[in-house]
Amino acid sequence: MSSLNSAIPSGDLAEKWTKYKATAPLINPANKRKFSVIVVGSGLAGGAAAATLSELGYQVKCFCYQDSPRRAHSIAAQGGINAAKNYQNDGDSVWRLFYDTIKGGDFRSREANVHRLAEVSSNIIDQCVAQGVPFAREYGGLLANRSFGGAQVSRTFYARGQTGQQLLIGCYQALEKEIARGVVQMYPRTEMMDLVKVNGHAKGIVVRDLTTGEISSHAADCVILATGGYGNVFYLSTNAMGCNVMAAFRAYKRGAYFANPCYTQIHPTCIPVSGDYQSKLTLMSESLRNDGRIWVPKSADVAAKIRAGEMTAADVPEAERDYYLERKYPSFGNLAPRDISSRSAKEACDEGRGVAKSGLGVFLDFKDAINRLGKDAIKARYGNLFQMYEKISGEDPYSVPMKIYPAVHYTMGGLWVDYNLMSNLPGLHVLGEANFSDHGANRLGASALMQGLADGYFVIPATLPSYLVNETPGKITTAMPEFREAEESVHDRVNLLMKNGTKGTRTVDSFHRELGLLMWDKCGMARNKAGLEEAIAKIPGIREDFWANVKIPGDSTQVNMELEKAGRVADFIDFAEMTCHDALNREESCGGHFREEYQFTEDDPDVKSGYTNPGEAKRRDDEFSYVAAWGDNGPGKKPELIKEELEFEAVKPSVRSYK
Amino acid sequence: MNLTLKVWRQAHADDRGSISTYEAKDIPEEASFLEMLDIVNEQILEGDSGEEPIHFDHDCREGICGMCSLNINGVPHSKEQGITTCQVHMRKFRDGDTIWIEPFRAKAFPVVKDLITDRTAFDRIIAAGGFIDVRTGSAVDANSLPIPKEEADSSFDAAACIGCGACVAACKNASAMLFVGAKAAHLNLLPQGEPEKDRRVLSMVRQMDAEGFGNCTNQYECEAVCPKEISADVIAKLNRDYAKAAVKEAVAT
Amino acid sequence: MNSPGKSLCLFWNSSIGKKIVVAVTGLLLVGFLLGHMAGNLLLFAGRDALNDYAEFLHHMLHGAGIWVARIGLLVALILHVMSTISLTLHNRAARKEKYEHEATVQASKSSRIMAISGLIILAFVIFHILHFTVRIDPELANMPDPNEPGRHDVYGMVLKGFEGPFVPAFYFIAITLLCSHLSHGIASIFQTLGLRSRKTEGSIKALSWLVTALLWVGFLIIPMSAYFKLVSDKGHASTGLIQQGTVADSTGYSPGLNRVQSAIQQGTVAE
Question: Does A273 touch chain B (CB under 8 A)?
Answer without folding.
Answer: no
